[in-house]
């Protein structure tokens, strides 16, 4: 029963009523029993970025499934349509050996998200660097021929489905990469205000008239100014910037407001902020950046949004830690603490 499935899933996925009926039916079959089992173990359903531990669990689940079925590669398992001569055999093995259950084993997330993550991890067409001018022209041509058939276009370009779809959305939109104009900044601030007001009004219900809602002052927690804002919706309202550009610009605006326009991360202040950040991260003893409470950590740098601290940490590891992509989060922190912290303290 669809209504019963929605009601049960809502305990684990609060936004489930915004999901299509077809997706809910699939989730009821693939996820509901797993979610109940995780609940018994005291484990909450997760969303957002996958942790290193979860990525390792996906690799383990894939390797075990390949061993049990004799399928000779993760690419054949996850991108079966690329191998038409083996397609029927692989699909039969996936059904017989309960592929859905095995892939999601030990991971408290919706199956669909685990599947997408696995495809991203094991796609040989992924991580191929920037698009050349020639590739961009080919992408335009293939889209004119095949429309939004990203599977077909990805095969022609030897790039992942997601990569070609995202790149085409960049090419077709009138995106500005330069400095923000006053008009763009005004649009951004208006768009953010609009989504925050809608959120507040939804929580308040219909207790106020529409004219009162449009004119009243609103008072909100600081965190609501930057946490979980719908950036794709905001970017669509701005019209000339990607969602990530909008998020970065909004973080800059907030940081300047919070610090009354004073420089925050320069000279001795900047060095001290790096020292504080490294020490606090080292003291936390966490294994993954998803376990870091960035909101609590923000005062290590100053009165700033958590996105500002995350951006500063990213720049720190990229500029200071050799081969950081191949290191775990805890290895990165250990390197910064043991190798770079003494240098920063000496500079200070």
What's the layout of helices and strands?
Blueprint (H helix, E strand, L loop, with lengths): L1 H9 L10 H10 L1 H9 L11 H18 L4 H5 L8 H10 L2 H5 L7 H12 L10 H14 L3 H8 L3 H12 L9 H23 L5 H6 L15 H8 L4 H16 L8 H18 L9 H4 L8 H15 L8 H19 L1
GO biological process, one term: termination of RNA polymerase I transcription
Organism: Stercorarius parasiticus
GO molecular function, one term: chromatin binding
Q: Overview of this structure, please?
A:
The chain has 348 residues and is mostly helical. Helix content is 64%, strand content 0%. The chain has helices at residues 2-10, 21-30, 32-40, 52-69, 74-78, 87-96, 99-103, 111-122, 133-146, 150-157, 161-172, 182-204, 210-215, 231-238, 243-258, 267-284, 294-297, 306-320, 329-347. The longest helix is centred in the middle third of the chain and has 23 residues, at 182-204. It is globular and about 65 Å long. It starts with a helix and ends with a helix.
């Amino acid at each position: 029963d669809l209504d019963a499935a929605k009601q049960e899933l809502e305990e684990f996925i609060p936004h489930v009523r915004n999901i299509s009926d077809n997706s809910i039916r699939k989730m009821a079959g693939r996820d509901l029993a797993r979610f109940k089992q995780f609940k018994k173990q005291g484990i909450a359903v997760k969303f957002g970025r996958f942790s290193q531990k979860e990525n390792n669990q996906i690799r383990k689940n894939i390797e075990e499934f390949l061993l049990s079925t004799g399928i000779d590669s993760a690419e054949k398992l996850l991108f079966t349509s690329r191998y038409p001569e083996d397609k029927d055999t692989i699909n039969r093995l996936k059904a017989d050996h309960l592929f859905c259950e095995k892939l999601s084993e030990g991971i408290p997330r919706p199956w669909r998200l685990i599947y997408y993550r696995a495809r991203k991890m094991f796609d040989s067409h992924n991580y191929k660097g920037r698009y050349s001018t020639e590739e961009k022209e080919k992408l335009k041509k293939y889209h004119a021929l095949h429309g939004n058939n990203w599977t077909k276009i990805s095969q022609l370009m030897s790039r992942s489905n997601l990569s070609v779809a995202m790149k085409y959305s960049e090419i077709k939109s009138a995106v500005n990469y330069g400095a923000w104009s006053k008009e763009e900044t005004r649009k951004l601030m208006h768009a953010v205000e609009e989504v925050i007001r809608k959120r507040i009004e939804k929580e308040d219900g219909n207790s106020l008239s529409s004219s009162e809602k449009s004119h009243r002052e609103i008072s909100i927690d600081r965190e609501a100014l930057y946490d979980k804002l719908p950036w794709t919706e905001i970017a669509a309202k701005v019209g000339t910037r990607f969602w990530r550009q909008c998020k970065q610009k909004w973080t800059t605006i907030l940081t300047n407001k919070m610090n009354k326009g004073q420089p925050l991360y320069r000279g001795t202040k900047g060095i001290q902020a790096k020292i504080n950040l490294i020490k606090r991260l080292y003291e936390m003893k966490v294994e993954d950046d998803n376990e870091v409470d960035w909101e609590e950590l923000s005062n290590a740098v100053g009165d700033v949004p958590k996105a500002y601290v995350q951006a500063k940490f990213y720049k720190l590891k990229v500029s200071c830690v050799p081969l950081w992509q191949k290191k775990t989060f805890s290895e990165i922190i250990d390197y910064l603490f043991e190798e770079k912290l003494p240098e920063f303290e000496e500079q200070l």
